[in-house]
Specification:
Blueprint lengths: L1 H21 L3 H4 L4 H4 L5 H5 L3 H6 L10 E5 L8 E5 L11 E7 L6 E3 L5 E4 L10 E10 L10 E8 L13 E6 L7 E4 L17 E6 L4 E3 L5 E4 L11 E9 L9 E11 L7 E2 L3 E7 L7 E5 L1 E2 L9 E8 L5 E6 L4 E6 L10 E10 L13 E11 L6 E2 L4 E6 L7 E4 L2 E2 L8 E5 L9 E3 L5 E4 L10 E10 L6 E11 L7 E2 L4 E5 L7 E8 L11 E4 L9 E5 L4 E6 L11 E9 L7 E13 L5 E3 L13 H27 L34 H5 L34 H13 L47 H18 L1
Parallel strand pairs: 1-7, 8-14, 16-23, 25-32, 34-40
Antiparallel strand pairs: 2-5, 3-6, 4-5, 6-7, 9-12, 10-13, 11-12, 13-14, 15-18, 17-21, 19-22, 20-21, 22-23, 24-27, 26-30, 28-31, 29-30, 31-32, 33-35, 35-38, 36-39, 37-38, 39-40, 40-41
């Protein structure tokens, strides 16, 4: 490669060097003004110009140039000469000094200040920087004063083919449908070349395929990849690797090249029909299988993928089209055969079906390849199973009159065992549906009988469930609902529809309708209700009232005369006989109460009581009720006040600011000593063995009467005083007649055999000062506290 590059540089430089040697320097300096033209003349000639000419012509620099060129990537042993600067002011006496400034001056470009030669001292790269702008000036060698204004020029770096094409976006991926026609566009790629596109052919690219023939081709200039073979099959090969080359110099020898890869994937089209893996399928199913159960699966394979491989399954022929159905499983791409109707081994033992699988999405471009469907045969064998009994009807409807006799047969249900063995059937009633046990059934023949009387007016329908069980296999059970309708019989007499009370105005007119009544009957005759109304025989000639039957099956009561007076008779009772149209007819007598009332002139009832005459005129009924309510309220308040006064006692609860020792309770009686049996029974306290029964409290008068509480059992000898006190304290706390204040109770009994003796100071022969209470600490915590209290008292006295 280095030798090849050297040859290329030599070919480029040889004509340039010859041209530079043979041509005069003016070629490089590009003369543009008058001073450049006078560059070959003597300065003396310039000095001879007339005075007038110097005034008319402005001063111009004696030299100017435009641009220079230098090749990139030159790396010779010596700096490369770019060009030479020269001014016509230079007489050759070496008194002029050339100065260079600008881009790369001194670092990349160096000038000989005497000769004006410019050299490139570094290797240049056009792709990094294509041109440099510099400024040159001629100055006096000794004084460094400018001899003329500075001049700007450009050094352009000339391009050589030193960059290979690159695919910046590679590697590439593309797709194309399978079975595409010849020349179908796949994709296009693009390569870039960093060389100068306007200079030579360094950046002129040509594309070609190094690997991937004969399947694909590429346009040399546009890099568009196309299919080179028609009808490429994805099922045969799905992916292709194509190596693409881009070469500069127009593809000629010596050009640089770059490569990339393109992966082409063939996408699927529906060009393959489904195909069953086998032409005949065998399945078996028990006859008692649940409806909707999957019996088996069939599958038609399709070489396509995705939606192109989706198939729908159908049953197109066979003797079981009504019993079976087939559905498509979108995930597994197979057909599921399910049961639609019950099977019966005893009726038919096998079925044959013809199923078809067809593509869902068909591409019309490939419809000429034949039908995109396939068929297979499915044989299903029914296996015998022990089936439960089968009733002759899925439901039963029975009717019975409500007056049917007990144990009479209402109806019958029948069932059979569908199996070949034909087991006997036993019938029973599900008692959860007949909680009142109104019906029975014969276990052998299924006859349903009445167990308790029926009443249609209470319940018209009775819904029960009958159970049929195989005797040989009790696990085989069937149920059937039975609806029993109770038919009506005429067993209820008609009566008034409600409680009627009629009001008759004293100033009423003869023939005026007092009240309209209607009747009701709990029975429900088929032809509807029709009632007959009449008065009792002894009331037929009633002088006051008469009745009239209306068309709507109601009855109107009319007054025969006027002049009714409530002071003479306030209430009239009118018995009415009501009969129905049953067979036999039933009747009842209902009494209508008619009150005589005082009414206004327009017939509005105002008062129906005799006492209304003594009331003040103009006082309404509402006002009377309000006055009566106020009187009752006042009476209740007075009664409550008196009751509270009678039960009010002196306050017995000690106030917080009072001392209990100042609460003195006085008794008016002096007492009779030990012979007084009405006071406290001290003997009971002194001898617990004699406790038996209840002794009432004498210090208060009980407000409540209660049963005496059960006496305590005899206390054995050596009773504990602590326990005795606790029992007495418990009784006092639970006594409902006990006052809510403290009372003094004396306990003189110390217990038999007590080592402490008497604690009472009344019987003590020694004084308080002689007593030592420390021994009480040995008797327990309660006596220890008692000893501390006594000790504190003695200490206070001594103090």
């Amino acid at each position: 490669m280095p030798e090849r590059l050297a040859e290329m540089l030599l070919d480029l430089w040889t004509p340039l060097i010859i041209l530079w040697i043979t041509l005069p320097p003016c070629i490089y300096m590009a003369p543009t003004n008058q001073s450049q033209v006078l560059m070959s003349g003597s300065p003396l000639e310039l000095n001879r110009l007339g005075e007038e000419q110097r005034i008319l012509n402005r001063s111009k620099r004696g030299w100017v140039w435009n641009q220079m060129f230098v090749l990139e990537e030159f790396s010779g042993p010596e700096p490369i000469l770019v060009g030479r600067l020269h001014t016509d002011l230079d007489p050759g006496s070496k008194k002029i000094k050339y100065i260079l400034s600008g881009d790369g001056a001194g670092t990349i470009f160096q000038i000989n200040d005497v000769t004006g030669d410019i050299h490139a001292i570094k290797r240049l790269d056009r792709e990094e920087k294509a041109e440099y702008t510099l400024t040159a000036q001629a100055v006096d060698w000794e004084t460094s004063k400018p001899l003329e204004p500075p001049s700007e020029f450009i050094i352009k770096v000339q391009d050589i083919n030193d960059n290979a094409p690159e695919f910046l976006n590679g590697p590439y991926h593309a797709t194309v449908p399978e079975m595409s026609i010849l020349g179908t566009s796949v994709t296009n790629v693009t390569a870039t070349d960093a060389d100068d596109p306007v200079y030579g052919n360094s950046a002129k690219l040509v594309y070609s395929i190094l690997e991937g023939q004969p399947y694909f081709s590429i346009e040399p200039e546009t890099a568009v990849i196309k299919t080179a073979l028609p009808n490429m099959d994805r099922e045969a090969k799905e992916e292709y690797l194509v190596v693409i080359q881009a070469k500069d110099m127009g593809g000629h020898s010596g050009g640089l090249s770059g490569t990339t890869t393109l992966t082409v994937t063939l996408t699927d089209v529906n060009d393959n029909p489904p195909k069953f893996a086998q032409s005949l399928y065998h399945f078996s199913v028990p006859e008692d299988v649940v409806l909707g159960t999957a019996i088996g699966r069939v599958k038609a394979n399709d070489q396509d993928i995705g939606e192109n491989a989706q198939s729908s399954y159908d049953i197109i022929d066979g003797d079981g089209t009504a019993l079976f159905e087939i559905t498509s499983d979108a995930q597994a791409q197979d057909g599921i055969i399910r049961l639609r109707k019950p099977l019966d081994f005893e009726t038919k033992k096998s079925y044959t079906l013809k199923v078809e699988a067809a593509n869902v999405h068909i591409d019309p471009r490939f419809s000429g390849r034949g039908p995109f469907k396939d068929t297979a045969t499915v044989k299903i064998v029914v296996e015998d199973a022990d089936e439960p009994p089968v009733f002759s009807s899925p439901t039963y409807l029975l009717e019975v009159h409500e007056n049917a006799a007990l144990n009479s047969v209402i109806g019958q249900v029948t069932a059979r065992d569908p199996d070949i063995t034909s087991s006997p059937i036993r019938f029973s009633i599900d008692r959860h549906t007949d909680l009142e046990r109104q019906f029975n059934i014969n276990a052998d023949d299924g006859k349903i009988t009445l167990a308790t009387p029926l009443d249609r007016e209470l319940s018209v329908w009775h819904n029960i469930t009958i159970i049929a069980t195989e005797i040989r296999n009790h696990s085989q059970i069937s149920r059937v609902p039975v609806a029993i309708k109770v038919l009506d019989v005429n067993d209820n007499a008609p009566e008034f529809a409600s409680e009627y009370e009629a009001f008759l105005c004293e100033n009423g007119k003869p023939g005026q309708v007092i009240q309209t009544v209607s009747a009701m009957d709990k029975d429900d005759p088929k032809s509807g209700h029709y009632f007959l109304y009449s008065l009792l025989p002894e009331m037929v000639n009633n002088p006051n009232f008469t009745i009239k039957k209306n068309e709507d099956n109601s009855l109107s009561i009319l007054a025969k005369h006027n002049g009714f007076n409530r002071q003479k008779q306030e209430v009239y009772l009118l018995p009415i006989v009501i009969s129905d149209s049953g067979n036999p007819p039933l009747s009842s007598t209902s009494t209508l109460t008619i009150r005589v009332c005082g009414c206004s002139n327009d017939g509005v009832v105002q008062s129906c009581n005799v006492e209304a005459y003594v009331l003040p005129i103009g006082l309404s009924m509402g006002a009377l009720i309000a006055i009566l309510a106020c009187i009752i309220l006042l009476l209740v308040i007075v009664v409550l006040f008196v009751t509270l006064r009678r039960h009010k006692n002196e306050p017995l609860i000690i106030k917080d600011d009072e001392d209990v020792r100042e609460n003195i309770i006085r008794y008016d009686d002096e007492g009779g000593g030990e012979e007084d049996t009405e006071a406290f029974d001290i003997a009971t306290l002194q001898n617990p063995d004699g406790i038996n029964g209840f002794l009432p409290r004498k210090d208060i008068k009980p407000d409540l009467q209660f049963m005496p509480r059960q006496g305590l059992a005899p206390v054995p000898n050596g009773v504990d005083v602590d326990e005795f006190i606790n029992v007495r304290l418990h009784e006092a706390d639970n006594d409902p007649t006990a006052p809510p204040y403290d009372s003094i109770q004396i306990y003189g009994y110390e217990g038999r055999g007590s080592v402490a003796g008497s604690l009472s100071s009344l019987e003590s022969t020694t004084s308080d000062s002689d007593q030592n209470f420390d021994y009480l600490s040995d008797w327990g915590p309660r006596f220890k506290r008692l000893g501390e209290l006594y000790s504190v008292g003695e200490s206070d006295k001594e103090t």
